[in-house]
Write a structure and sequence with these properties.
It is a single chain. With about 270 residues, the chain is an alpha/beta fold. It has one domain. About 50% of the residues lie in helices and about 10% in strands. It has a five-stranded mixed β-sheet, with helices on both faces. A hairpin with a 5-residue loop joins strand 1 (about 10-15) and strand 2 (about 20-25). The termini are far apart.
Length: about 270
């Protein structure tokens, strides 16, 4: 994200020239958002996650673990070290907001809404992270980039880099105006800063080409998912809206990737298990 740009609390609609809308809806990892921010989603016809298709099983496992021992996932991350642990520890001190919750509250809530037959009825769900050879090569390129000497040296000064990035994140976020309770709004701003710091530090170990390739591939698959909606997944009375929950700090680069209009890549929705 460009220096001085602000992190968004409201969704961004990208209108596909072929028809329909891809709606990027920002959330904070492990944070339960208040109803006023949840309502910003608006009406939608299909749901797409920037995740692999085994994520629902992981969410269910986490839910079962939390039922047996509340906080077990949070504690495991906090003791594991690294930038994810720094974020999680910081989240536990945020006041006025439910944080460090597993499974990730907002994505799973939306999945359950899409699978429910009540209200709008069941809606198509896509998990757009690919599983082919090209993606494996991209993952391997990430691994190579992460173990470069300069990255190993930089990790020695991780605490200093974290504090510097956190200051930048604090300048880039503001309490959401939709949230009227001041304590909650300020807590969300603090959680936003922590999540952005974690994301930016994670992205810092990758070069721009790797990041651009990832976002372009995922954007193309989002366009493919939207194309499936246009083919009759919805009632056809209006342009279909594909809802994409995305981490707040990731939204700017994915928006840029969509604007470059990568070719739509065919993708099938997830099928319900019997």
């Amino acid at each position: 994200m460009a220096e001085g740009a602000m992190l968004r609390w409201s969704p961004v609609d990208w209108e596909d020239p072929a028809g329909g809308v891809i709606r990027l809806w920002p959330f904070l990892p492990t944070v339960v958002l208040p109803a006023s921010l949840r309502r910003s989603i608006g009406a939608w016809d299909g749901l797409a996650f920037l995740l692999p298709d085994d994520e629902p099983q992981i969410w269910q496992e986490q839910a079962d673990e939390e039922k047996a021992s509340a906080g077990i996932n949070r504690d495991a991350i906090c003791t594991g070290g690294g930038i994810l642990a720094r974020m999680m520890i910081g989240m536990t001190f945020v006041e006025g907001v439910q944080t460090a919750r597993f499974p990730d509250p907002e994505p799973r809530r939306l999945l359950l809404a899409a699978e429910s037959s009540a209200g709008h009825g069941q809606r198509p769900v896509f998990f757009v992270e690919p599983e082919d050879e090209d993606w494996i090569e991209w993952v391997e390129a990430c691994a190579d980039e992460m173990v470069r000497i300069r990255q190993l040296i930089a990790s020695v000064f991780g605490g200093r880099a974290w504090r510097k990035e956190l200051k930048r994140a604090m300048r880039a976020t503001r309490p959401p105006t939709r949230v009227r309770d001041e304590v909650t709004a300020q807590g969300l701003a603090e959680a936003s800063s922590l999540a952005a710091t974690w994301w930016w530090r994670a992205e810092a170990v990758l070069n721009e080409d790797i990041i651009r390739d990832r976002d372009a591939r995922l954007a193309g698959r989002l366009r493919g998912a939207l194309a499936r909606l246009r083919e009759g997944q919805v009632d056809g009375r209006s342009a279909p809206v594909l809802l994409v929950p995305i981490m707040q700090a990731w939204l700017p680069t994915m928006r840029s990737a969509l604007k470059r209009q990568p070719e739509a890549e065919s993708i099938e929705p997830e099928e319900e298990e019997e």
